Amino acid sequence: MAPTPTDCASSAASTNGSSSYDIFLSFRGEDIRNNFISFLHKALKDAGLNVFFDSENLWTGEAIGPTLQRAIEGSKISIPIFSSGYADSKWCLWELAQIVQCHRTNNQLVLPIFFHVDPSHVRNQTGSFEKIFHEHEKEFKPDIIKSWKDALGVVGNLKGDVLDETK
């Protein structure tokens, strides 16, 4: 089963309006759409960046997968924002696997943000990132699960910003 577009919202910021982006954001919309991402989106727009934002730039009936694939591949930097429900979304995991592929093949810079999530939970698929994989394993082939876990491990091992309740 393919992930559904509403599982994970994504956006990308462009400085030139073409299919090449400066920044690709991957986030679980259900978790952070009305707080952190709203502020980040506004800051990017205020900085003069053209932001590809799912609720503004995707048209009804448009094939989302290929659009997001082009945005990821055409980006210089990807910023996955890990929240407690990020791994619940098959769509977010698909995006992350694509981001890691671009990181490996095109040296794309990946700058993770851990939003109320311990980076070790991402890296090792523990905490909120553990239980959901038992469900994913019932639905997806082992090679897909492996690519998602590998991607979480790679990005979880990168230095990123940790935002938690105490900061």
From TrEMBL:
Q: List the Gene3D superfamilies hit by this protein, alphabetically.
A: Toll/interleukin-1 receptor homology (TIR) domain
Q: Name one GO molecular function term.
A: NAD+ nucleosidase activity, cyclic ADP-ribose generating
Enzyme class comes to hydrolase
Q: Which residues form the TIR domain?
A: 19-152
BP GO terms, sorted = signal transduction
**Among its keywords, does the record have Cell division?**
no
Alphabetized SUPFAM superfamilies for the sequence: Toll/Interleukin receptor TIR domain
Arranged from A to Z, the UniProt key words for this protein are: Hydrolase, NAD
Its Enzyme Commission number(s) read 3.2.2.6
Do you know which InterPro entries this protein is assigned to? Answer: TIR_dom, Toll_tir_struct_dom_sf
This enzyme catalyses: NAD(+) + H2O = ADP-D-ribose + nicotinamide + H(+)
What is the name listed in the Swiss-Prot or TrEMBL entry for this protein?
Answer: ADP-ribosyl cyclase/cyclic ADP-ribose hydrolase
The organism is Protea cynaroides
